[in-house]
Structure formats: C-alpha cells, structure tokens
Amino acid sequence: MNKILNINLGGYAITIDDDAYEHISAYLESIRRRFSESEGRDEIMRDIESRLGEIITNGLGNRTIVMLPDVEAAIEVMGKPEDFGGEPIEKPGADKSAKRIITPGKKLYRDEQDAVIGGVCSGMAAYFGFQEPIWMRLIFVLLALISFGFWAPVYLLLWVLVQPARTAAERLAMRGETPNVENIAREIEQGAERISKRVNEFGSKNFGSNASRNSAAVASGCLTVVGKLFLGLVIFIAIAMVFGLGSAWVAGIWAFFTAQPYISYFSPLSTPATYLGFVNGFFLLGIPIVALVLWLGRTIFRFKTPAWLGSGMSILWVLNFVSLVLLGGIAFAGFRQSGSVSKNLDLTGIGDTLNVQWAGRNVSDDDRDWLVDDEDIRIGNKRLHINDDDIVCIRVRHSETGRFEYSQTIRARGASGEDATEHAASTNFDVRKEGNTLLIPSGYFLNQGKKWRVQEVRITISVPEGKFITFGDVINRRVYDADYDDDYDNETSIRRNPGRVFRMTNDGLVCSGCPRFGDANYEGSDYFENFVLEGGFETEIIHDDNFSIILDGTESDRNGIETIRTGDNLTLTTRGKNLAGTVRCTIRTPTFTSLVADNSGNITIRGFDEHRASITAKGQSRIRGFFDCNNLDLTLLGKCFMELTGESDDLSATLTDGAELEASGWRTHRAEVSATDASRARLNVTEHANVKADPSSTVKVAGTANVNE
Amino acid sequence: MDLENAKLQMRKGVIEMCVLAVIAGRETYPPEIIEKLEGTDLLVKEGTLYPLLIRLKNDGLVDYIWREGVKGPPRKYFTITEDGRKFLDDLTAGWNNLVQVVNRTIEHHAADGAERRGTSEAPDTPPPLNIEPLPADS
Question: How close, in Å, is residue A12 to chain B by CA atoms?
C-alpha cells in the first residue's frame, strides 16, 4: 500500500505513486544543483520537467498511476545528473571520482520503518553511527529502568519533536549518506523490502488498527516486549497528563469566573492585563492538552493532522508564554517597594486600666464568600474585607512618657515607595476609644477600586509602669510582648490569658491571677514521665489516667521551686535553697519511666505497672515504692534509703556510700546486686541472685534463689 | 589518459555544431534532435540537450516558438536565428578544414604504426560526419 500524489510535472497532470514521486523529486533536485541561476536554471528545469512529463505520460498507456519503473524509464531517456555535464554547483572541490554530490550534514530523524515504538532509538542509532539500533534501544531501556520511568517522558518528547525520516533523501540524511541518485534508488528499494517485511502484531493486538508504522521486524523479541511495555507506559503517562492538565485547565477556567469580583482588588495588574494573563494561561495549559490529544490520536488511531498545526501551536504557545512572563515581571514589580502610613490615637482620659477589645468582624450579611467559604476574605458593599490572623499584630510596650499611648502603622507594597504608601493610605483600619476601652477591628477593608498589596497593621500600645492592661478574647491572640518576645506564649502571657489583668512593671507585664504550672486550676496539655526532684519537698508520684501536677504550699515557698520542662522530662528544683515551710508535690501520671532524687524529701511512688523503670537516689533522699515493674534498675548513692514493695522479673541494684535498700517486700525472679562502702541491702529473690558485696557491706537474700556471691 | 574522457571531450566540441545544424534545417522539437543524431554516439541522453539549447538561446543563436501539442501543454520548438546560421556556417567551414588536417595527420600515424607492427591494416578512422540539413518546412 502506498500513498498516491497528484502533481503537475511541466504542465502534465500526473497521478504518481509515493515512491516514484520521491525518486523523481530527488532526481530533479540533483539536476537542479548542477546549474546556476545565471545559466538559466529555471528554464532548463522547466524544459526537463515538461519533457519528463511527456515521456511519462506517453509511456503510461492505459494505466493511470505512475509507478517507480515509469520514472526510472523516463530517467533512462533523460540521463543521469552526471550526464548533464558540468559539476554540481555546491562543493566545487569535492571528490570527482566517487559520488560527486553534496554531503549535507547528518540530521536526527526518527526511523519509522525500523521502529519498535516511534523509531526514536533507531533514528538516534543511525545518527550516532550504530550498526544496530538494538544497542540504542538497550541504552534507552536501561535509562528508563535507572530513572524509574522518568526517562519515558524524554522519549515521548523526542517522539513528538523529532521528525520522522519520510522521504528517501531524509532517510539518507538520517544516516549521513549523500543523497545522490544511486543512493536514493537503493534506499527506495530497501524501503519497499522493509515494508513488505513488517510485522504488525503489536498494532493489531493492542489497538486493532493496522499500525503499519510500528513494530518492524526486530531482532530481539524480548526487547519488542519491553518496547511495547514502554510504549504502553508512555501512552499511560500521556493520558494521565491529559487528565492532569485538563483538570487544571477546567479549574483555571472555573477560577477565572469565580474570581471576577476579586480581580480589581487582588490582581497585581490592571484589569485588561489580568484578562490577558488569564487568556495566556488558558492557552499555555490548553495547547499541550490539544497537542497530547492529537499525539495520542496519531499514535493510537492514526489520525492525520496538518503539518502546520504543530508549528502553529508551538508558536502560539511560545507567544503566550512570553506574554505571561512579561506580565509576571510587571506584576512582580508591583510588589517591589514597601511603604507605610502611621497614625496615633489620643488615649488621654484612660484610668488605671486600659481594656482592649475586639471590635468584631466588619462584615455585613450580604457579603459574598471567597470561592468556597472563607470568613477571612469577603466582598460586599463595594468593599473588600480582609480578616486574616496575621494582618493585625499588637505589641505592648513599657511607656516612656508615663502615659498610655497608641500608635498604628499600616504597611503595604507597591511599584514605588509612593505607590506603596498610597496603598497603605487607602487601607481602612479604624480603632475606636469608648471610655477605658479600645476597640480594635480584626481586619481592614478596601473600597472598590483600591488594591490589595499585602497590607499589614502593626499596633503598638505603651503602658506606663504601675498601670494595668487587659485584653479580651480573640484579640489577645494577636498580642506580642515587645519587651519579652521569647515569652509571649507561656502560661502567664496575654495570649493564654484573655480577660486577665496585667500590670506593667520594670520587668515588663506581669499577670496577677494567671494559673501557673503546679496550680490546681492550671490547664495545660503537658505530659512527663521522667522526673528529677532536687530539694527538701515531699513528693507523691501516683498512677493516673491523666497527667497533672499540684504544688501545695505557701506562695513564697512555691516560688522557691523552679520547674524546668523539656520534652517528657520534668525537673523540680530548689536550687539548693531551703524552703521555709513544707511543700507537698503531687504528680499524677499515666506512665513512670525514671526518677532521679537528689537530697529530696520523702518520695512515694504508687500504683504503676511498668515494663521498665529506673530510680536513682542521691544524698539524703528517702524513697518508698509500691508498684510493679518487669525490669527495675536502682542506683543508690550516698546515705539514702529506699523501701520497695511489689514485684519484678529482674532487679538490678547498685549501692554505694552507705546506701540502704529494704526490698524484702519486693519479690523478684532474678537479682543482680553490687554493694560497696558500708551499704546494706535486703532482697527477696525466687530464682537466681548475683551478689557482689565488699566486706564493709551486707546483702541479705531471702527466698528460694541460688545465690552467687 | 582516459580514453572515455578523451572521447567525451571530443563529442562536447562538436555537439553544438550538430545541434545547430539540425535546427538550421527546420524548426525542431528537442527529442527530434536525439532521433536525428541516433547512432552518432554524440547525444545519448536527452537531458544533455536542454542546458545546451538554453545556452544557445541565451547566446542568440537559436530561438523558440510555442506550438500546441497533440495532447498535453504547448511544446517549445526551436528555430535558428540569423546569427545562428552565420555561426553555423563559420563553424562548418572550420570543421571541414579541421577534418582534412586531422585525417591527414592520423593517416600518417596509422601508416607509421602499420610499418612498425609490420601489418598493413587500415587505420580506425571515425565514421565521417555527414549531416544533411533537412529541407526547410514550407
């Protein structure tokens, strides 16, 4: 099967077979190269074409289609280009004895006649001078495997970008051979052979089409299978891309219509430029979709598409891309500079306490929701309201003047400093004073025609020393303590304590009634399982479902105990100081993993059933434990005392410097004890005990165990 | 020296004269020139003819007119111009002169060669060119 072309050959209308056409075109072209314009090339060519047309027409008889032999016969009459005398115009110094015709540079083509998928590999093999395309295919398969399939799009891209070698001359250029008449004739002959040898199993099996271009006879059947899988993968990726791009496209169009009311406020460009940008985006996404669909159609269903389509779409895409990049540059420039507008509010007449409250949302009922349902950005009453969490930020300072002071700064971006300042000035953010109360809006609004340019409101409230300030709920979360940035989010911060009164001191704001860690009314989500207790306060560690800690004692004694919280480690320490009275600490925790007690008061551990735990006691600590534990490690250093009741599988204990362990009420299967320097231990072991004790120490083991001493 | 090449050079020299001579007889369709020169080994392929004719035309020695063909588009028929006829006359005179001299020279050579080889074979003389101008169309 072959294509048929209708051509005008020197005034003769001729219906010609594709191969024959290639042959005659190549022939005429090679003659053409032999004459210069001044020699009357065009006239010569016209005469020759006209005569060829006549010879062919006369030779045709009753047949209608001109075939390769007809052309060959006509060329036989007319003579080969070499017979025409003269040398080819190009390359006058070329080798005269051999094929004396131009040698154009090698070009990369796809070889569709020897293709497993798209002929990319065989084309590249020809280009790089490989004898067998199988090596190039192996390289591609290898690359695909190494890159976990990411090579597939590269293949796809080459498939789309690289032209197939269709004409004999292109096929020769693909291999870097000179397109003289002999070579072209040979190429056409071989092409015919190749076509007759084509195996179409892939195409017919997979797509039910005749798939004439795919799956030429390939040496390796295995590789053919890999190639088909690869093609399948490529097609799958292409389809996935169509769907992905397609949804993005639809989403983009939907967003365009939904965003209509917002464009005048938010767009970094003028409205027409914004629309142009949307159109650019429409094409940027749409063209690849159309291209992919066409490609899929060509590959799977063998569509024909006009040749200009590809380049036309490419040009359109590039134009849109350039336009969008330019618009992007302009848009970006619109945010380059920053500017601000500041304003103060007179707070004279405020008593001892300034009450700061949220003015509520400045939003009316007929407001439209932003896209889905966002409370933060609304349009209505020819205004845009923005109520985002980060745009209003309040800092509280120590007043330098002895008076309450309020100042606000609205910052914005713009193409120039003035532009930015103008944007800031057109932002509506109005604070009101009502008696001792300051009402702060949670956001700002822009009138129609004004632009959003990342406006932010920064408020500074100065409180004189000795005076008080209180923040209502919600607004308190916008507060940062200017003097104590690190501490703005601790349990005595404004952010955690809406409605509480804070006093300005020389050290910054101090909360009077805020519940602290260790208070009964403290509500925190803390959780600890490793404890370090230093100092003479009494502690109970009790198993409970939820963690809590209560410190019971006088205010000053409680203040004498410092709490350090890191991860799940909790340290309570007096820093070596003595407490005036008694402080009782009750820790309730679901898990108990370790305890380090250093010169502590009485410690009681109660109710746990742990897999593994360790207790270290130093100095004068006295510890009593009522719990169970599979593996318990004890370290007793110094004149401490520990009494244990419960049971374990394994107990290991190290005692030194006069430590005392009373564990006869603790039943363990195995024990490993080392006692030195006048330490004493009593144990109850059922299976096996390893005891190391120096002469000054005593270890008594009750129970039924074998004891190694 | 390449014999083929030598012959080619020789043919090239006389080809123009022969073509002019054919056209001088009557207005001619190029393939007819091939027919006329058949057997002379001068013009084997038609392709050679067209560049030659265009060259002659550009030199003002021939001209052409369009005539309707039996079928297909109009054909170009070549005619000789006055300049062409004069050129052909000069060329023919020169040729006759040349042939005489050349024939004389190579007869000597053939005789010498026969003497040396001790044979009396007749020398290989090229067939004389004998192109009679066709009677002009009335």
Answer: 6
B78 contacts B34 by C-beta, under 8 angstroms: no
Maximum separation of any 2 CA atoms in chain A, in Å:
132
The DSSP call for residue A513 is: S
Give pLDDT tens digits for A595-627: 999 988 899 999 999 999 999 999 889 999 999
Query: Half-sphere exposure of residue A388, counting CA atoms within 13 Å on the CB side?
Result: 10
Q: ipTM score here?
A: 0.73
A626 to chain B, any CB pair closer than 8 A? The answer is no
Give yes or no for a contact between A680 and A662, defined as CB atoms under 8 angstroms apart.
Answer: no
Residue A659, CA atoms < 13 Å, CB-side half-sphere? 29
Tokens of A352: 């001892």
A39 vs B30, B51, B71: nearest CB: B51
Count CA atoms closer than 13 A to A707's CA, side-chain side.
15
d(CA A177, CA A170): 10
* B69 phi, psi to nearest 5 deg: -85, 175
Task: Report d(CA B36, CA A609) in Å as an integer.
Answer: 124
In angstroms, the first-to-last Cα distance of chain A is 101
Phi-psi group of A420: left, alpha or beta (phi > 0 → left; psi -120 to 50 → alpha; rest → beta): alpha
In 3D space, the residue among A153, A164, A165, A124 whose CA is nearest the CA of residue A288 turns out to be A153
Q: What band does A213 get if pLDDT is binned at 50, 70 and 90? A: very low
* Pairing of the two strands A383-386 and A377-380: antiparallel
The DSSP-derived string for A9-68 is ETTEEEEEEHHHHHHHHHHHHHHHTTS-GGGTHHHHHHHHHHHHHHHHHHHHTT--EE-H
3-class secondary-structure state, position A70 = helix
Determine the 3-state secondary structure of A478 from DSSP. Answer: helix
Would the CB atoms of A48 and B47 count as touching at under 8 Å? Answer: yes
CB A669 within 8 Å of CB A685: yes
CA distance B42 to chain A (A): 12
A486 DSSP 8-state letter: G
Query: For residue range A32-58, what is the model confidence (pLDDT) as tens digits?
Result: 877 777 777 888 888 888 888 888 888
Closest CA to A467 of A350, A348, A344, A357: A350
- Smallest Cβ–Cβ distance between B73 and the set A50, A77, A86 belongs to A50
Q: What is the sign, positive or negative, of the torsion defined by CA atoms of A111, A117, A121, A122?
A: negative
Q: Is A687 exposed, middle or buried (0-12, 13-18, 19+ CB in 10 A)?
A: middle
SS3 A167: coil
The chain A residue lying nearest B55, using CA atoms, is: A39
Listed in sequence order, the residues at least 6 apart from A134 whose beta carbon sits closer than 8 Å to its beta carbon are A218, A219, A220, A223
Query: Chain A partners of B53 at a C-beta cutoff of 8 Å?
Result: 47
CA end-to-end distance (rounded Å), chain B? 48
Measured in whole angstroms, how far is the alpha carbon of residue B114 from the centre of its chain? 31
Smallest Cβ distance to A84: which of B51, B69, B72? B51
What is the rounded radius of gyration, in angstroms, for the C-alpha atoms of chain B?
A: 18
Which region among A602-616, A624-638, A650-664, B15-29 has the lowest average model confidence (pLDDT)?
B15-29
Reported in sequence order, the residue ranges of B33-138 that DSSP labels E, i.e. its strands, are 62-67, 75-80
Residue A570 near residue A532, CB atoms below 8 Å? yes
d(CA A421, CA A456): 12
Percent helix, strand, coil in chain B (nearest 5)?
A: 55, 10, 35
CB of B67 within 8 Å of a chain A CB? The answer is: no
Give the contacts of A627 (CB within 8 A, at least 6 positions apart). Answer: A543, A592, A605, A606, A607, A608, A609, A610, A646
